[in-house]
Task: structure prediction
Amino acid sequence: MKKVLLLLLAACSFAAAAQTLPAGVTRSHEVEGITEYRLPNGLQVLLVPDDAKPTITVNLIYRVGSRHESYGETGMAHLLEHLIFKGTPTTPNVWGEFVKRGLRPNGTTSFDRTNYFASFSSANADTLRWYLSWQADAMVNSRIAREDLDSEMTVVRNEMESGENNPGRVLLQQTMAAMYQWHNYGKAIIGARSDVENVDITRLQAFYRRHYQPDNATLIVTGKFDAARTLGWIAEFFAPIPKPQRALDVTYTLDAVQDGERQVTLRRAGGAPLLYTAYHLPAGAHPDFAAAELLALILGDAPSGRLHRALVDKQLAASVFGFAWDLAEPGPLFVGAQLAPGQDVAKARSAMSAATESFSRAPVTDAEVERARAQWLKAWYLGFTDPERVGVELSEAVAKGDWRLYFLARDRIRALKRADVQRVATERLLPSNRTAGTYVPTEAPQRAPAPARVDAAALLKDYRGDAAAARVEAFDPTPANLDARTERLALASGMKVALLTKGARGQLAQARLRLHYGDETSLRGLATVADFVAALLDKGSTRMTRQQVSDRLDQLRAVVAFDAAGQTLSVSITAPRDSLPAVIELVGQLLREPAFPADALEEVRRQALAGLAQARQEPGAVIAKLLDRHANPYPKGDLRHEPTFDEEVQAVRAVKVDQLRAFQRRFYNAVHAEFGAAGDIDAAAVKQALTAAFGNWRGAQPYRRIANPLVDKPALRVLAQTPDKQNAEMRIELPLPLSDTHADYPALMMANHLFGFFGVSRLWMRIREQEGLSYDVRSFVQWSPWEPNSPWVATAIFAPQNQPKVEAALKAETERALKDGFTQQELDEGRRGLLEYRRQSRAQDAGVAAALASNLELKRSFAISQQVDDALAKLTLEQVNAAWRSYQQPAKWAAAYGGDFEKAGVAGSSRP
Result:
């Protein structure tokens, strides 16, 4: 009866909407709460109303990516993504408008599409109306001017240089280049450096006019909004754009079936060995792609995956992974292995190929298929339950040919048979279809099936999908409402609990558990042991194996992560309402009865050593280490001591299983602990689960927080040489004698927002927008809630040869702000944007859960957030400028720059 009623309501809703559609707008498909409309000019519109949280996400997708670029045009799609934000004649300062309205915007470019999306509060309908109008304006009126290209080209080049620092990203692109002889998937999305540096503005403008048109776009609106009013605005702004007369070219290049192994070798300084192997797959819309996705999980999962058993368990690699790339045209399946220093590359390569191509001699099992299916469906479910994510995740389905492929992919995974997985494995995972191995002559070569296109329209002609999920309550996340809806209690053990019950899409809940332990004396010399204890908690208990724990979390559709920092173990939990109590029970078992298997310890040790080997050569890690050690007064063993890389390696190598067990028995208990949860919660069941898991868990070891007072450090300026790195990094620190309860907290927060936040901040406008020196430049304050010790930090990435310009620009803008101050217009616009960001942060259940736990420890409520908002709203320009001048002292900066400055000819660099 309930299902019939829902169908009748849906039918009534369809009829009502059809009667009120704007002129010329037609309604077509509706699947699981997503309704498709078409404008006369061809624009496709998807509306996904969801009152789960008071935010809106708008995503405009253009079906153009690097796949559509011609000779000499590589990188054009990505360049346009940047230039669109340079504005139109009517909106010249796009980033300023974003910040003023509190938007969280972004744009991304892929092989098959470019998208522009933003999330913002639903409280002000004018924000949605403005953003829709800007997207319509940008579609056909963006400047795409020579002067903007000149500055942004160097920013894109710096982004390219940043990617060049990552061997994994470079190796991925080079493997794709070896894999594809003719297809544009073999070319980097960001483009060739020569094309980006020499791009012809008239060709770029033509590329823009050809592809940025309504008949080549899909507009998606998700979240809490009035569907009828929103559709009216869309028609108002987009319908006047005429349907173009041109016909878009259809791409037709496909690579032939690969007829032999291909190999590529990358040689660069630093890091640890990394292996990729890739195999050609059908397009993402192809029926066989579902089997390929499960194969990637069957191979790359830890600890059940075939690669993990063949390489990690046998100590041939530190970690393994696998993924299938769902693209519009035939794409790749990748498997890979990260090796620790000293592990044999040849043995790992041989073992990886043997395991990946093992299905003919060791067919896939039912258990492998079901485990992979549960993992895939869990990930899909978590994406679909978030209205902000689902609107963006639909981008890939649109790029493949039809947004309904998003649901069809799920249906195919549900229905997939073991025999189909086995067939695809034996057809595709062949030596002759492999890229990364060495060439081996073969008398009787096997060939994978020839690539073929997919008619997505015919495939989905009668597709309906599941019934749409029920809409949830509209919750206003004001501090007062958050406090009013929060239930607080304490367990007999001492654990403090805060539960905020509210509606959430998919009945999802977010929880954060924190345990505090030890003191300055008892924790001496145990920092690495504490980290390893946390890293091994999910590797099994005395009652469950590691695989059983992983399978149980998949069954519960839950994600659990453990992390140790200082004197605190943090546990993050994401789970549906009906699973959360069982997840709490499982977490309690893992915390109280961990297994600490010896083989898992060795696996974590190898992964840590691989990470340290990588960090030694990374500019960002090198300068962060340098500054953390600068004038550090604490002796080795003290929890506040910053070790050298060599000391870290020594500590990692020294960890033993008996140390882990002793640490857990001595320090872990619920006496000093907090649990915060927000979302769709069964409060009675959660309290019962917490009582059973932690109610009687007490310990004798006292907890006393280790103070972290401000240390007066001398000024520093150093250029650290990191060879063979095409991207450099900057980090500047200035200790401030403040905490987040200081009277100057709101004023200095606002001053830094105006100086170093993205969009229209002084640093962004000078270093990125005007001079085009950096892809990412910002400043922030690491606010302490405890003692007056809150460092101000400024960071940037840039090409090594631009280091003097970046340093000069930063100093110039700092001095200008000190001398002239900020303007009233900056304050007015910055205040609105900062308050809007704070409001949006309170609409994220994960952040609210973390804040609930933190408030319990600090003996606070959300009322303090309202007090800060009120103070920000009342700030005067004199207060903001006075705060900046009181605390900003460039003469006391500790500044570190890391990069290959010797090759760039920058004087004064030294090896760290």
Notes: The chain has four domains: 23-238, 274-387+397-449, 479-694, 716-910. DSSP finds 34 helices and 23 strands in the chain. The CA atoms of residues 495 and 673 lie 5 Å apart. The mean pLDDT is 93.
